[in-house]
Design a protein that fits this description.
It comes from Oncorhynchus kisutch. The chain has 34 helices and twelve strands. By secondary structure, the chain is mostly helical.
Length: 785
């Protein structure tokens, strides 16, 4: 099974929960640090994993690291505090008492320096001998506190060290000399440090197996001298002399360190098999003087070569490379090389970006291929460089190519979920970059992602809506509105309420409806905007109120009016013309043949009519007359009639709130009752409900028969089409008791009683066939995109 398809390990889930529950599992000490209230003797590997998980989740700090002061219960061997804000004192008390074998303290903020770490580790005699691997990259070493005195506190005090990473630190020549006296040193990374001399490396020439030394900008040695020193490192198997300044280096830089380094690499490649003959790995990516001839000679002279870094050298197409099955190449010549580059250069932003650029070109032609392996590599780049515009821009383009159309269908959902999370993070981090926002929107506009993949849809809806406010590109507008429509339909009631509380969103969507109405256009953008508005007002009184405040009711009335009759003139379209300083064209009569438009308009009016405080705004004879005409007829689809009936049922259900002529109310009730009896059940699903509670007031025995009949017909419809969901919902919400009361009341109309008894029969059959099966009620909405 593919790694992306495997469920998360139980241990991972447990550790994540512990990280989230530290406050409840611990007691606070007088100094503010935490101690576990109770803890068993955890396996050492589990303690290491807990520390790593806390660092990865961002919960490791001076307060929480205190739990590791209990060395008896939580024994650390491989400690990772990467990028965690720790003070020198907290580090000393919590980590230094352990018999550590490995420590990764790279990029630690908060004042902790390399000097503090060394002095703390050296204070534990066991650590002096046990520590084998130390990573302090991207850390201020603070050498002033490590001056060589009679009792030297330096790296040489850690006699067990085999691997040391000091990349991007302030390492200087004297301390490089100190490091090279370590008797067992095998792996050393001094990249991007201010060292000027490499002669000290000869001190470990018999043990050093791996040297990473890119970006030595202050190196003061001739290329020949550099190669002379390196050639004496007899144990060396892995060498990295790459240069990631190639993107920004000007043509005049031939005489700077980059030029000197390029010359050293040329001498190495062309120097014959006598120089470092035992090398199995060489990285010269980004170097300028790498030729295919030199690469060919170098490879042929070293049969044991396993890796060669050639990204951004132009030499990755050598014929000799294709014939070496065991040789891995990081380059840009083909898919295999590009993927190797993304794997190798996770911590090299410039190389990651370069590889992604070539991957984008490659994926442009990758049709109908589901490649989760490549998508995972792209995701890694996005996660590692979430604040890099350049990486996010090209990575998001790659994601679109890899998930476009049906390519997302076969992708593991956990992988897609992580990708969408990073896409949303990119949208949030770079809100004003149009192309990046466009890329991210293109990624989101996928049926598979929008419908099936778990992610923060509420946050996504807000981000897309914010983007929409500043862009008018028609194609992108259509996609944005489609995305919003589908996202809103997936939100919980609480999230929809929160989203609907922003009147700006209502104005934006109504503006799109008005824009399309002005042009007389019936397209997917209009339909998605209407669906979004429909779902946004579903059981959300605040959004419904905003709809009224933004004069949405007047706009919708005009849409219905023009859809019903083709004889209106511009002057008759009163409010919207005045408030927007424009006029709606007669082309809007196109809506008369668009039942989907009418259905979405009436569906939203249904939502408004459910809110008692807003019913007074709908007490308009013209509006009600338009709705009544849609109750039935040979040209009216049942979906349109159904929602027209819902509007009328809610508005006529409260006699005391009816402000129009009572005779009109009675006429409407009679026509509603008669129309419902003519409705045939549609073959396809027409509507979905998150709750039946808005129907409860309509099912009271005191209600007119027409109102009751509409409510039971609606319930009967959805129970017929999805009995498992809705029969269970009827029971859970208490609607069954209302139906029984209605059925047993002697004054209930026979049509209503018959429909109610039919629903009760379906519920009983559902109990018989499904018990004890319990299905969770879906968070459906009235709306349909």
């Amino acid at each position: 099974m593919a790694e992306e398809s495997c469920p998360v390990a139980l241990s991972e889930l447990c550790l994540a929960q512990v990280c989230l529950s530290l406050d409840s599992l611990c007691r606070t000490q007088p100094d503010g640090s935490l101690r576990l209230s109770w803890a068993p003797l955890l396996p050492q590997e589990m303690a290491d994993q807990l520390l790593h998980k806390m660092a990865a989740q961002g919960t490791l700090n001076d307060r929480t690291v205190g739990i590791f002061r209990s060395c008896e219960q939580l024994r650390l061997r491989r400690a990772c505090v990467r990028s965690s804000p720790l003070s020198a004192e907290a580090f000393r008390l919590a980590l230094c008492p352990h018999r550590l074998q490995e420590l990764d303290a790279s990029g630690v903020p908060g004042g902790l320096t390399g000097a503090h770490i060394l002095s703390g580790l050296a204070s534990n005699p066991e650590c002096r001998a046990s520590l084998q691997r130390l990573t302090l990259s991207r850390l201020q070493l603070g050498w002033t506190s490590l001056e060589v005195k009679e009792e030297q506190v330096g790296f040489s005090s850690l006699q067990g060290l085999r691997t040391l990473n000091l990349a991007n630190t302030d390492l200087t020549d004297p301390f490089l000399e100190d490091i090279c006296t370590l008797p067992q040193l095998e792996v050393l990374d001094i990249s991007s440090t201010p060292v000027t001399e490499l002669s000290a490396l000869l001190g470990c020439r018999l043990t050093l197996r791996s040297l990473t030394a890119h970006g030595l900008r202050q190196l003061d040695m001739s290329p020949a001298r550099v190669i002379s020193i390196l050639s004496q490192l007899h144990a060396l198997r892995h060498l990295d002399l790459s240069d990631d300044r190639f993107v920004s280096a000007p043509p005049s830089s031939e005489n700077d360190e980059g030029g000197e380094g390029d010359e050293a690499v040329r001498l190495l490649l062309e120097g014959g098999s006598g120089i470092l003959p035992a090398l199995v790995s060489l990285d010269v990516s980004g170097r300028k003087k790498v030729t295919e001839g030199a690469v060919t000679a170098f490879v042929e002279g070293r049969r044991g070569l396993l890796f060669l870094g050639l990204l951004a050298t132009g030499a990755g197409s050598c014929d000799v490379l294709s014939g070496k099955n065991n040789l891995k190449v990081a380059g840009e010549a083909n898919e295999k090389q590009i993927c190797e580059s993304l794997r190798r250069y996770r911590e090299r932003e410039c190389f990651t970006r370069e590889a992604l650029v070539h991957l984008y070109q490659l994926t442009n032609d990758m049709y109908d291929q589901t490649r989760p392996d490549i998508l995972k590599l792209v995701l890694g780049g996005m996660q590692n460089y979430s604040k890099s515009l350049h990486v996010q821009l090209v990575a998001s383009a790659c994601v679109f190519n890899l998930t476009n159309q049906d390519m997302a269908v076969g992708m593991p959902h956990p992988l897609l979920s992580a990708v969408v999370h990073q896409v949303l993070e990119a949208m949030r981090s770079f809100p004003s970059h149009q192309q990046l926002q466009k890329n991210c929107l293109l990624v989101l506009c996928s049926d598979t992602i929008l419908q099936d993949v778990p992610f923060d849809r509420f946050e996504a809806a807000k981000l897309v809506m914010n983007w929409l406010s500043g862009h008018v590109d028609r194609t992108l507008q259509r996609m944005a509105v489609a995305v919003i429509s589908i996202l809103v339909a997936k939100l919980s009631t609480e999230q929809t309420t929160q989203l609907g509380a922003d009147i700006f969103i209502m104005k934006q969507l109504l503006g799109i409806v008005q824009q399309k109405a002005m042009a007389g256009v019936v397209d997917s953008t209009l339909k998605f905007a209407l669906s979004a508005l429909w779902n946004l007002t579903d059981e959300t009184p605040t959004a419904s109120r905003h709809f009224i405040q933004c004069q949405g009711l007047e706009l919708y009335e005009e849409v219905l009016e023009v859809g019903e009759a083709h004889t209106h003139t511009h002057s008759e379209l009163k409010w919207w013309n005045h408030s927007m300083n424009c006029s709606l064209p007669l082309a809007l009569q196109t809506y008369s043949s668009e039942s989907s438009i009418q259905q979405k308009v009436l569906g939203l009016l249904n939502n408004i009519a459910e809110v008692e405080e807003l019913q007074a705004d709908m007490m308009q004879e013209d509006l009600l007359e338009h709705v009544v005409t849609l109750l039935q007829g040979p040209q009216v689809e049942v979906g349109v009639s159904y929602f027209a009936g819902g509007v009328l049922a809610h508005l006529t259900s409260r006699q005391d709130a009816w402000t129009l002529d009572q005779g009109l109310r009675q006429t409407i009730l009679e026509q509603l009752h008669a129309a419902i009896l003519t409705w045939a059940l549609p073959e396809r699903e027409m509507v979905s409900y998150r709750s039946f509670r808005p129907f409860f007031s309509l099912l009271q025995t005191s209600q007119p028969a027409g109102v009751q009949l509409w409510a039971v017909w609606a319930m009967h419809l959805v129970c017929t089409q999805n009995g498992v969901q809705y029969c269970h919902m009827l029971q859970v919400e208490g609607a069954v008791e209302l139906l029984k009361t209605l059925s047993s009341d002697l004054d209930t109309h026979s049509n209503v009683r018959g429909m109610a008894e039919s629903i009760l029969g379906m519920v009983e059959r559902h109990q018989t066939t499904s018990n004890p099966l319990r299905t969770q009620t879906e968070k459906g909405h009235h709306g349909r995109s």
